[in-house]
Each structure stands twice: as structure tokens, then as C-alpha cells.
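Subject: for your reference before the review

Hello V.,

The reviewers asked for a structural picture of the protein, and I figured it would be easier to keep everything in one thread rather than splitting it across files. Below is the amino acid sequence we used in the manuscript, unchanged from the supplementary table.
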Amino acid sequence: MNTPPSASETEGTDGSSVQIGALVPLTRPGWVEAGQHLLAGLELAVREANDAGGIAGRPLELVVRDTAADPQRAAEAVDELARLGVAALAGEYHSVVARAAAARADALGLPFLCSSAVLDALTEQPTEWVARLAPPQSRGWQTYADFLLGAGHSRIAVAAQPSVYWASGTRILRDYLAPRGGTVIELDMSALTPAAVCDELADNRATALLLLVGHPEPAVPIVKSVRRDQRLAEIMIGAPAGQPEFAEWATLLGDDSAAIPFLRYLPERLSPLGERVETALRERLAEAPSFVAFEGYDTVAVLADVLRSHGADRARIAKSWPRVAVEGTRGQIQFSRTPGISVWQWAGTPIQVVDRDPAEPDRFRVLHAS
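And here is what came back from the structure prediction:
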């Protein structure tokens, strides 16, 4: 049964709309293309919610703030959005930025449904205020490790920049691969040039190189160097964090963009809802939507359902996470407590390892699924 919002619940708004704060990377050094796709999904779902009558007759409104991949900027945006009276927060792509936003949301008692960030420790302590749609990094990257082993790779080099996210990914890979006969060789990209990476790969007899680095720099120069080194003709390049998902990757690398497996969070087949949303997103973006656009749509679909059922009171929204049952574009969304994960987690997120087809780089091939 819908509960009418009280006067205190609309404090800070103009009284006519229910507001959701959206955290999105829209400028560099943020991954701008990911931010644009995330925002497209969020905006499409808001439009559809309003076309269906809004929240108990009140329009849903998105209040967007650009995080630019800056944790401090994100934390300040959370403070501002809380003062403005938003009912909940949505979005964010970068894990380290989402972690700062989640910590601030938890401290302020502001519900936050994180769309895309995967870092397992999204908050230091268990929280009731934060829920997440993307799978935890441990689950996704273990799936990627299974793919590597199945493809015959046991000597795996990781070209990594300093970051909590990349360090976490390296640890997950090492812990999972070591008992299964795999070796992880760390290459410190704060000290190596792309040419030096090639030398290290040859010296260490690595059969796979994983790019745990930013995009486009230094990911693109590394790929170009490795592809042009005759010693490394047989090496597989991988990018578990998903750099090849977006069109800019193919634009910058051309034929070199293909056959670089990455993680994406889509099912084998989209539901009828997913197919309809895909068509609308393609029109909005003027290109094929990435999985990040679907994450954005599903975020608002969940929040709109919660707001209709429980009103705009922040505490009631947070208490509703375990009762969510929403048909999203990629499956039925429900949140549960997952061992080792501090936030409410969608445990059923589909996971695929895909790459761009060398014969047709605009087409993706599914190589492995979980």
C-alpha cells in the first residue's frame, strides 16, 4: 500500500516533485563515455516513470552532479544533495568514487542505490543505507579468472596503476589462480613505459596481459605496443574492468581493439522489457547501449518502485531494500546480504566475458558466462 509522504519528506524540494540525486562521471579524468551511458539509462527510466503517473501523482526528478572520478567531489555532492532534500541517491561508475559517496551517504542516513561500482568493500562497515546492482568485484573477477584458466592461461601479467580498485583486482586474481596452478606477475605502470611492458612480458614468458589501468591513457598505448611487438604475437590481452565496451575504444584502436576479453553484466538474452529499453537507449545515445546504460535504467526502476510503495521518507526507503522485487532489464532484482559484502547486494547479476570480434569489431562475442 502506498504511504503518502509527510511534510518533512518533501523538505528542501519545491513540493511538487520527488527528487533523486544522480552521481555520474561526465568530465575527465572520469570515464565520460561510461557516465553518458549511465545517465542515459537513469534519464530514460525517469521519463518512463513520469509517463506512468510519477510517484503517487508527483513527478520524479533527477538532480545530476558530475563526480569527474573525484572521490572528494563526490562526497561534497552527497552533502549538497542531502541538503537539497533528495529522497535517495543513484548512480556512480567508478568504484573508488562510489566508496567515498557510500561512506558519506551512510553517515548522513541517505539511501544510495549504486549502479555500477563493484569494489567489494563499498563501505568499511555493514550499512543499511546502501544497496548495489553491479556484482561485487570478487565474483566478477573470479569469473574472469575461470575464463583465463579455461583458455589455457596460467602465467598472467597484470599491468597495474596504483589504486585501491586495481590492487583489489590483482589480489582477487592471485588468490583465485594460485591454488589452481596460475601465476600472477605484477607490472607497476607507475614505473614502466609501454615498451618496457613488452620487455617484461617477453622475459617472464607471460601468455596473457591484463590491463588494470586507466582509459584511454595508458591502456591504448600499451595495446598498440604489445600488438606491434613480434615477440608477443601469441599473447592474449585482457581488460576485466571493461575498457573495450565503449565505442571510443574501437575508434582509438581500430583493428587492435578486437580480441581483448572484458567483463560485462548482461544476460544471454534480454527480457522483453530489456529489448524495449535497448531500442529506446539506442535512439537516445545514437549508438548501441552498453551494460552501464541498463544499470542506470534498472537503478531508477528499483527506486521508483520503492518510492511508490514506501513514500519518500529516507529511513523507510532504506528499510525496504530486503523487500525489493522488481523486474529489471536483465532479470528479477532482489537484494540480500552476501557474506563479505557490506551493502545490500543484488546476488543475481548476470556476468559475461566478451570481446570484440576481429572479423567485425563492432560485434561482441560471448566467450564465457556465469
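For the response letter, the relevant points are probably these. The first strand starts at residue 18 and ends at 24. The longest helix spans residues 32-51.

Happy to draft the paragraph if you're swamped.

O.
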